[in-house]
């Protein structure tokens, strides 16, 4: 599983876990107070869904920009010898071709 998917699952889990206290406090609709937003308030269930959607988008954008700023994919280069060894290990090239290309790279 990629680290991106794991971080997205972590963000969604944290977002959903943070809404548990809000869901647990239903307020008392019998009193004269305004009530809780998600239970008998002016917005009903859509207010709660909007809140979850809003924070989900904010967290997703933050994770996206953090990963974009910390990744070095554009400047990442691999050594040619390393690639040659990987191809030989995977069986893409035989021993003779490996030695020939290795000699070319070292000269």
Describe the 3D structure:
The protein is rod-shaped and about 70 Å long. The protein has helices spanning 3-18, 20-24, 44-70, 80-90, 95-106. The chain is built from five helices and no strands. It folds into two domains: 3-70, no CATH class; 79-107, no CATH class. Helix 1 runs antiparallel to helix 3 (44-70) and helix 4 (80-90) runs antiparallel to helix 5 (95-106). With 107 residues, it is mostly helical.
Broad shape: rod-shaped
Strand content: under 5%
Helix content: 55-70%
In DSSP terms, counting alpha (H) and pi (I) runs of 4 or more, how many helices?
A: 5
The H-and-E topology, N to C, reads as HHHHH
The radius of gyration is 27 Å
Count of individual beta strands: 0
Structural class: mainly alpha
- N→C terminal distance: 40 Å
Low-pLDDT residue spans: none
Give the number of domains. 2
Most strands sheet: none
Mean pLDDT: 76
